[in-house]
Amino acid sequence: MKRTITEGLERPANGPPSEPRNAPPSIEPPAETASAGPPDLTSLVADLRAALGELKCLGSERLRRHGVSMGHLHAMALLERHGRLSMSHLAELLDVGLSNVTGLVDRMEERGLVERIRVPDDRRLVLVALTDYGRRLLEEMDVLRNDLLTRVLAQLEPESLAAVSVAVSRLRDVVREAVAEARAEVAATSSPPDPGGGQRHHRRT
Fold this sequence. Notes:
Low-confidence stretches: 2-10, 23-27, 29-34, 197-205
Strand order of the largest sheet: 1-3-2
Helix content: 55-70%
Oligomer: single chain
Order of helices and strands: HHEHHEEHH
Number of strands: 3
């Protein structure tokens, strides 16, 4: 009796022949498991700054239509945060000379963004404050950015949105700690040295 080459193989009813009974089991290569390592901080910072920059540019485009430049916007943000400021204090916060901030305030006053207020007790002291129009422009920019952020977050899945919420909350805490430490370092380096803080011993020869 002739033996065929398929003898010893079990053929399913509708399919290719199966492995021989005494054949060694086939070994499949293990599936590749990609280990998710920590994210690259450089790329993460770049992406975060780019996203925040898009929001900033969107608000700035709206303000430029009203004749508000980036310099105006910076000064307005400082006035919104600190309230009325003297010309010298505003120049210090902007890190510019007094003559430069005088010209800046002149242009902003022409556009109705700020106003000069003289102190009755000291006529030489001039304070700069936001006008209602300037404050309203900043509020409109905040509303525009909030609307855009809301639309962006609404596109995330519930699981991703929950993860973002936890990450942003943690990020806010870390930022507060970092800002507090940075301010403490600046205060320590800018304070004058204590003449009695240390003793020096000089050896006479």
